[in-house]
Each structure stands twice: as structure tokens, then as C-alpha cells.
Amino acid sequence: MPFVNIKKQYLAIGMLVFVLLFFFNSKPTFQCQFNPDGTAVFPTIYGITPTYARLAQKADLTRLSQTLMLVKNFHWIVIEDSETKTKLVENLLRESTLKYTHLNVKTHKAKHSTASGVEQRNMALEWLRGHLKKADDKKGVVYFMDDDNTYSLKVFDEMRKIHKVGVWPVGIVGGMRVEMPLVKDGKVHGYNAVWKPFRPFPIDMAGFAINASLFLDVPQAKFSRKVQSGFQESEILKYFTTKDELEPLAENCTKVYVWHTRTQKPSILNTKKLKTPVTPDDNIEV
Ligand SMILES: *[C@@H]1O[C@H](CO)[C@@H](O)[C@H](O)[C@H]1NC(C)=O
Predict the structure, then answer these.
(1) What spacing in Å lies between the alpha carbon of 195 and ligand 1's midpoint?
(2) I want to staple 174 with a disulfide (CB 3.0 to 4.6 A). Which of 93, 158, 195, 232 is the partner?
(3) Which residue CA neighbors atom 7 of ligand 1 most closely?
(4) CATH code at position 75
């Protein structure tokens, strides 16, 4: 029966193609690529994110964590502003598939200081120093990330090029469409900031990243409550770099790959005052 024979041949060829496809597909995808000497091609990015309990926290952290899941060799350091670690953050991190470190420290705000995240970022830096001292591969990049900003994957590609400190534009911040270093002949010669332009480094936290090994070279480098508002960035950068040494990235600071978005504070109706009864939702994690 020639008809059946042809079908069998097709079947055999089909199976062969299937097996070949399976074989080529089963090679591991390179989550982490290595140089011949065993060090990672992509330096680890240590993202440091302070966070605090609020209604939109899980929504913000979900959006951010799912961006970060697309970044190669990423290690997320999340520091809760709380006395104890919360179940909400713990579960979110565990379910994320990310490499992470979960810390917590409660802010005890001093008078005249409105800066947020100081204690949390400093605790993360302390952890990082301990971690790097023990690590074989000390190569890495430190990036301070708010939990409600918007990050293009491109910003992570850029920061892996850093030698000491890299800078780039940040969208929608400081009352401007974009706040950015001004670059001429591949060097930063100024900034376009209008909010406190007299700051030594008038750039947002999202607009720079630092070579991680510098934190071992300069063990005293940390954030401070003693500086006026808007000076946290300058406070940390002064330990590592000068304006002339800044490395302009994102095509000589002509591209926006990160936005200082803010999640609006949601307004919730007081359900106890509503006429129609609603399902009790007190036990649902939102
Ligand atoms: C940045 O500018 C310098 C000097 O003009 C140039 O040599 C370099 O190629 C530029 N880099 C990028 C990525 O555009």
C-alpha cells in the first residue's frame, strides 16, 4: 500500500525533525554566561530598594519584580522600613524567582530630616560589603532603586559598562520632563537641573550606578541624615567620583531609560459607611 508507506516516511521525517529540534532546544539557555577564567561576563547588578507598607505596595513591588526577572545576573536587596519583616514582602520575594536578600530596619526620623531610605540603604550597603568580602567574584554594580520608578531593561545594559560611576538622564523628575547631565566630547560638563542646581551632583538616585568594589575600597561611604533634602545623591557620590570622572552612558546622556514615576496615593471608601453591605475583604492580601 504505497499511500500508507508515504505516510510512514513523512511520519519518520517528522519525528526526526522533532527530535533534532528538541535536541537543539534542550541546550541550556544562558542565564549566566562565563568567561574562560570562570568570572561572569555580566557583572552582577545589586539593586538596593527600600520599601514601606502602604496600600499600593504590593502592586508597585509586583511591577518592579517582574521587570527585574528579565535582568541577567541581578541580585535584589529589599529593605523594609519596619520592625519586622512582613509576610507580604516575604511571599512576593519568594514567589519572584529572583535572587534576593530581604532585610528590615525601622526608620527613627530625627527632627528636621525628611529624607527617606537612609537607614535602609545604609543597611543594604553594610550587607553588601560583608557579601563582597566573602565572594570570589567581586565584580558588580550598585544601583539605588525606588520601588515605584519605571525601569527600561536598557538601563541595566548601560550600567554594566561602568568603570567607577556611570550617569544617565532620568525622565519626569525635579519638575522637569527630563533631568540630565550635559555632555560634550564624551565628558559631563554640567547639568540641566533647575531644582537646587547648586547641589554638587544635581541628579536623581535613579540616574547613576556605582562599581560595587568601590564600596570595599571606601568602607566609610554611606548615606547621612545630616544633609539637607535633595543632597543624598551628592552625599554618596562624593566618596567615589568628581564631575570630571563621571561616565556618561545612554548614548552620551541623550536617551531616557528610567522614569521617576510616582504611584498616586489611592483613596478608599469607608465601607462601614456604605448603605449596601459588601463582602468582608479584611483577610485578603492586596
Ligand atoms: C559619545 O561621544 C564621544 C565624543 O563625541 C564619541 O566618541 C562616542 O562615540 C559617543 N558615544 C556614544 C555611545 O554615542
Answers:
(1) 28
(2) 195
(3) 186
(4) 3.90.550.10
